[in-house]
């Protein structure tokens, strides 16, 4: 019988003819392991219990509803329900049946390889429930690399994501933040802090700051991101001890932030830095340039190609999608400690735009954010 075996993957166990219990049962029937039963004679070899027989096709709707309700009552969306009944094709109330146990970690083998009945691919059903076919299972992730206001950009993006109604975490050079509350102080640009943020199941979005040194020593804590922001290439002196001795080698490190951008995402690049502009061709997704000067050559050429850019005009933040322009917010309406770093504000605005945040939410977040630690939880 191919259903019998020694491991758990077999629905039935092997029959050991030397087992004293089996020998005793055969002896009671005046038989031995070598005996040949008479035609039509039924022989009890050993009593078996807990054998899985698939009865999915005959489960009464009331029984299925009771099982689903039991799981929801204890707060589970995936559960194994144990019940006692005489006939599963009839309602439990008609036969004094009852649910006796709800298991949070049910076994799947009984459904995949039942002793009798049709096998059920419950694993595929569970995965489809957790991650629908049209979903990737990813949360929006933003990576910010560079030394020009990267910590501020990361915190500001966290504020904008919170304003959009998302539970957002931020790991930057100043600490680890969950929904704006600092839970760890100090440099959190490393892998461990990023991993700590990603395993928090309450987070619906995450922002990570990195730099050339953290990328070289530990790498990025995520495999792909929705938006990658690069402010500048950093300084060679910061990584010379790691055998990075020229600008080309440094660029090959910083490009990692652009290399991991999803095809559905965007790179947000500082148009004022020619070396950063060169990274545009490496992005699998779209590219958004930002610069204080709307006449920046990279911005002008990018817009001429029908692409997006963020810049300042008459002290207002401007969003440009090709020739189409939207005046977003007067920089004077942003708190003084934040507006001291207008380029960082433009970078965060561009990243929020790339994430699809509504314009009014971006404006509200920019007004509310204060870069002064003593006056804000961000």
Q: Short summary of the structure?
A:
The chain is elongated and about 100 Å long.
Offer a few descriptive terms.
378 residues, alpha/beta, UDP-N-acetylmuramoyl-L-alanine:D-glutamate ligase, 3 domains, 11-stranded mixed sheet, two-stranded parallel ribbon, 30% helix, disordered C terminus
Structure description:
With 378 residues, the chain is α/β, with parallel strands linked by helices. The chain has 3 domains: 1-51, no CATH class; 56-130, no CATH class; 141-375, Mur-like, catalytic domain (UDP-N-acetylmuramoyl-L-alanine:D-glutamate ligase, 3-Layer(aba) Sandwich), CATH 3.40.1190.10. It is built from 14 helices and 15 strands. The chain has an 11-stranded mixed β-sheet with strand order 8-7-6-9-5-10-11-12-13-14-15, with helices on both faces. Strands 1-2 form a two-stranded parallel ribbon. Helix 11 links the parallel strand 12 (286-293) and strand 13 (308-313). Helix 5 crosses helix 13. It is elongated, with a radius of gyration of 31 Å. It starts with a strand and ends in a 10-residue tail after the last helix. Mean pLDDT is 91; it is low at 374-378.
| Straight-line N-to-C gap | 66 Å
Low-confidence stretches: 374-378
The average pLDDT value, as a whole number, equals: 91
Principal-axis shape:
elongated
CATH superfamily of the largest domain: Mur-like, catalytic domain
Computed Rg:
31 Å
According to CATH, what is the topology of the largest domain? Answer: UDP-N-acetylmuramoyl-L-alanine:D-glutamate ligase
Structure annotation, total helices: 14
Report strand %: 15-25%
CATH architecture of the largest domain: 3-Layer(aba) Sandwich
Across the major sheet, the strand order is: 8-7-6-9-5-10-11-12-13-14-15
Count of individual domains = 3
Order of helices and strands: EEHHEEHHEHEEEHEHEHHEHEHEEEHHH
- Helix/strand-derived category reads alpha/beta
Give the fraction of residues assigned to helices. Answer: 25-40%
Largest beta-sheet characterization: 11 strands, mixed
Please give the CATH class of the largest domain: Alpha Beta
Would you count the extended β strands for me?
A: 15
């Amino acid at each position: 019988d191919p259903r019998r075996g020694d491991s758990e993957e077999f629905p039935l166990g092997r029959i050991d003819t030397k087992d004293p219990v089996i020998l005793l049962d055969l002896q009671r029937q005046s038989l031995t392991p070598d005996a040949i039963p008479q035609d039509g004679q039924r022989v009890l070899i050993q009593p078996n219990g807990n054998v899985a027989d698939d009865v999915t096709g005959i489960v009464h709707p009331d029984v299925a509803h009771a099982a689903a309700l039991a799981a929801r009552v204890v707060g589970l969306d995936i559960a194994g329900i144990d019940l006692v009944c005489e006939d599963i094709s009839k309602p439990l109330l008609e036969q004094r049946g009852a649910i006796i146990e709800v298991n949070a970690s049910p076994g799947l083998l009984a459904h995949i390889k039942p002793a009798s009945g049709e096998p059920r691919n419950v694993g595929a059903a569970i995965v489809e429930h957790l991650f629908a076919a049209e979903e990737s299972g990813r949360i929006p992730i933003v990576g910010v690399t560079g030394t020009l206001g990267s910590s501020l950009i990361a915190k500001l993006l966290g504020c904008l994501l919170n304003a959009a109604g998302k539970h957002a975490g931020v790991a930057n050079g100043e600490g680890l933040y969950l929904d704006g509350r600092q839970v760890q102080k100090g440099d959190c640009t490393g892998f461990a802090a990023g991993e700590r943020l990603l395993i928090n199941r309450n987070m619906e979005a995450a922002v990570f700051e990195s730099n050339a040194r953290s990328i070289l020593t530990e790498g990025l804590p995520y495999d792909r991101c929705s938006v990658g922001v690069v402010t500048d290439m950093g300084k060679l002196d910061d990584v010379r001890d790691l055998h990075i001795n020229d600008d080309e080698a440094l660029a090959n490190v910083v490009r990692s932030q652009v290399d991991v951008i999803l095809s559905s995402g965007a790179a947000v690049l500082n148009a004022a830095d020619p070396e950063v502009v060169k990274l545009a061709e490496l992005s699998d997704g779209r590219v958004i340039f930002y610069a204080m000067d709307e006449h920046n050559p990279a911005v002008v050429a990018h817009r001429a190609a029908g692409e997006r850019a963020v810049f300042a005009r008459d002290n207002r933040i401007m969003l440009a999608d090709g020739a189409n322009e939207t005046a977003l917010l007067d920089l004077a309406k942003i708190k003084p400690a934040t507006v001291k770093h207008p380029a960082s504000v433009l970078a965060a605005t561009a990243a929020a735009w790339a994430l699809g945040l509504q314009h009014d939410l971006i404006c509200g977040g920019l007004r509310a954010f204060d870069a002064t630690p003593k006056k804000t939880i961000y």
